[in-house]
Each structure stands twice: as C-alpha cells, then as structure tokens.
Design brief:
Residues 192-292 form the MaoC-like domain. One of its GO terms (molecular function) is enoyl-CoA hydratase activity. This is Enoyl-CoA hydratase 2, peroxisomal. With 308 residues, the protein is α+β, with helices and mostly antiparallel strands. It is built from seven helices and eleven strands. The protein has helices at residues 9-13, 26-35, 70-73, 76-79, 198-202, 215-220, 230-244, and strands at residues 20-24, 92-101, 109-122, 126-137, 143-154, 167-169, 188-193, 253-260, 269-277, 280-287, 292-301. Strands 1, 2, 3, 4, 5, 6, 7, 8, 9, 10 and 11 form an eleven-stranded antiparallel sheet that branches. The longest helix has 15 residues, at 230-244. The structure holds (2E)-Hexenoyl-CoA (TC6).
Length: 308
C-alpha cells in the first residue's frame, strides 16, 4: 500500500495542471439543458425549447450560460492528482462556483482549458481549495468564459504549521462577492420540481462521481441517499432567473456566483427567490419539503429586460 502523502500547501499552490481540450456537440448542449430541468413542465415552452430544438436544425439551438460550468467539473480527477493534497475524495463537496461569460457559447465546439490553483484555506475541520479555469475556443484562441470552483474537502483541514490558520488566495479582497440576502419580499419567485432521476440524467453531462448515483457511496459521504450535483442545482436557479427576470433571454447573463449551503436530494422541490438591485439579481434557493436554504448567490446582468 502506498504511504500516505503529507499535506503540503506550498506544493499545492504551485501545482501546474495540464492544459485540457474538451469538444462538445449540440447533443451535449441539449442533454445538459434537459438535465437542469428545461422543458420539464412544458415540452413546448417558448422560452426553453430553443435549448433543445430549433426548426432550422440542431446547429441553431441556443446554449445556456451555466453549460460553461461543465468545463470545471471535468477537473475533479485532476484535483485528486495534485501532489501534497491529502484528502478523502469520498468526502469532497462542491462549495462555491463563479462563472464569468465573455461570449455567448456556440452550439458546438472545442474548448481549451487552462487551470490554476487560485486559493487554499485551512478551516480546521476542512480544507477549501479554489481552482480558476480559463476556457478558450480552441480554433480561434478567443477567451469565452472563466470558472472559479471552490471545493470543500471535509476532514482535510488542520494542516497549518503556525497558530494562524493557513490562507492563500490570488484574488484581492475587493474581488470577492459580498452580498446579503434581503429580508424584504422577493421581486420574483420560481418553483420547480427536480425528478427522482435528476442526478442520473444530469451525470450524463460528464460528472460521473458516484456520490450522485450510488447509495453506498452516498452513505459513506454522510447522506441517506445519492445527492444532486451542486452545478445541477445552480443550473435550475439560473434558469429560474432567466425565465423570471431576463424574460427568456439567456445572453443577458454576465456573471454568476453561488455558494452551496446544503445538499439537495433528487426529487425535492426547489424554490428560487430573487431580488433585483440595479443589474444584480440576488437569489436564494430553498428546498420546499425541508424549508431549508440550499444555495445563494448573485447573478449580474448586462442590461434589464424592457418588459420588466
Ligand atoms: C467539484 C465537483 C464535484 C461536485 C460535487 C458536488 O456537486 S457535491 C453537492 C453540492 N454541494 C453540497 O451539497 C454542499 C452543501 N453545503 C454543505 O453541506 C455545507 O455548507 C458544507 C459542508 C460545505 C460546510 O458546512 P460546515 O457546517 O462544515 O461549515 P461551517 O458553516 O462551519 O463553516 C466552516 C468554514 O467553511 C466556510 N464554508 C462554509 N460553507 C462553505 C462553502 N459552501 N464553500 C466554501 N466555504 C464554505 C465558512 O465560511 C467557514 O469559514 P470561516 O468563515 O470560519 O473562515
């Protein structure tokens, strides 16, 4: 059996990920849209059918902005290979996600990902690792979008050598997203049911972590049954914002941030509450059956819909 490697912050933050290319087709974009509940209530929904079908042919379908987040999920296996990062992959949870859109996503293409470790924090009971991924259209070299993914590694904290907990981030403090969910009545509320099979469908978009499909693995991770992918919940929330605030116009989304507060079980009902502050939409997702907040964050728009 291989010896357990020592947790080494310096080695972790200087790690160089390999550049990775992912190619996708219209089929992947449509499968993703179905995986985050598009058209699940109404198969001819005129705000959502465009993500899965276009009368001019599949090459004309439109792509949801959160499709960009899939290109960070693919890094899970690379995180497990980081030298000096000693953690139990079964206890990994997705903590936060930030996505910045620079161009609308084409319905198919090849994406070149350049990833770096952008943060590492010792939280005592957990280590928090941040990874930034810049995604370029392979052929043109144009930067399309950026993801910052935070993973919460339960049981991997307590590695600091001094009394001050270790904390490294490459972002200035004014770049972190500060927001407070208002106490006032939301501007809009959107309710959506996830299906009991939601995670089984969503995983076909590329995140095959058995935490979302295998009851034994879910139990080891501390859950009574497989849980929903965090990025699937985020996809539901941003769809709710596109429908309720952007009036179906997904290209209005400039950036998206979200913190996963609690797990979601497939089959639960998601209630997304939204507050409009200028061009910022503050949002919170609650699970109706347990009346608990599971996700909150901010979406920034490039303009407001004229029909608001
Ligand atoms: C990646 C691809 C793989 C995908 C997997 C999935 O989809 S899994 C499914 C999707 N994901 C899920 O279902 C996960 C849902 N979320 C959870 O279950 C819980 O929020 C938790 C277990 C992540 C943390 O709970 P807890 O009670 O252990 O935490 P606490 O409140 O005691 O705070 C301790 C410290 O950690 C900080 N911190 C706290 N939360 C976060 C966060 N989210 N993010 C970052 N940091 C966070 C907090 O600020 C504090 O630091 P401070 O301020 O002291 O310096």
């Amino acid at each position: 059996m291989a010896a357990k490697s020592e947790f080494d912050p310096q080695l972790i933050i200087s790690h160089k990920f390999p550049e990775l290319t992912y190619c996708y087709t219209e089929r992947d974009a449509a499968l993703y849209a179905l995986g985050i509940g598009a058209c699940s209530k109404d198969a001819v929904d005129n705000k959502e059918l465009k993500y899965v079908y276009h009368p001019d042919g599949q090459q004309s379908i439109e792509v949801l902005p959160t499709f960009a987040s899939l290109f960070s999920g693919g890094l899970q296996s690379e995180i497990a290979k980081i030298p000096g990062l000693d953690f139990d992959p079964r206890l990994l949870l997705h903590g936060q996600q930030y996505i910045e859109m620079y161009k609308p996503l084409p319905s198919h293409g090849c994406i070149l990902n350049k990833a770096t470790v952008s943060g590492l924090h010792d939280k005592g009971k957990a280590a928090v690792l941040e990874v930034e991924i810049l995604s370029y259209e392979k052929e043109s070299g144009v930067l399309l979008f950026m993801n910052r993914m935070t993973v919460y590694l339960r049981g991997a904290g307590g590695f600091s050598k001094s009394s001050q907990p270790y904390s490294f981030t490459k972002y200035p403090s004014n770049q972190t997203f500060a927001y407070k969910i208002p106490q006032s009545q939301p501007f809009a509320v959107f309710e959506d049911c996830t299906q009991p099979s939601q995670a089984l469908l969503y995983r076909l978009s590329g995140d095959y972590n058995p935490l979302h499909s295998d009851p034994m693995v879910a139990e080891i991770a501390g859950f009574s049954r497989p849980i929903l992918h965090g990025l699937c919940t985020l996809g539901f929330a941003v769809r709710a914002i596109i429908k309720s605030i952007c009036r179906g116009e997904q290209k209005m989304i400039k950036n998206i941030s979200g913190r996963f507060l609690l797990h979601v079980y497939p089959g639960e009902t998601l209630i997304t509450e939204m507050w409009l502050e200028g061009l910022r939409v503050l949002y919170q997702v609650k699970v109706k059956e347990r009346n608990r907040a599971v996700l909150s964050g901010v979406v920034t728009l490039d303009r407001l819909s004229s029909s608001l």
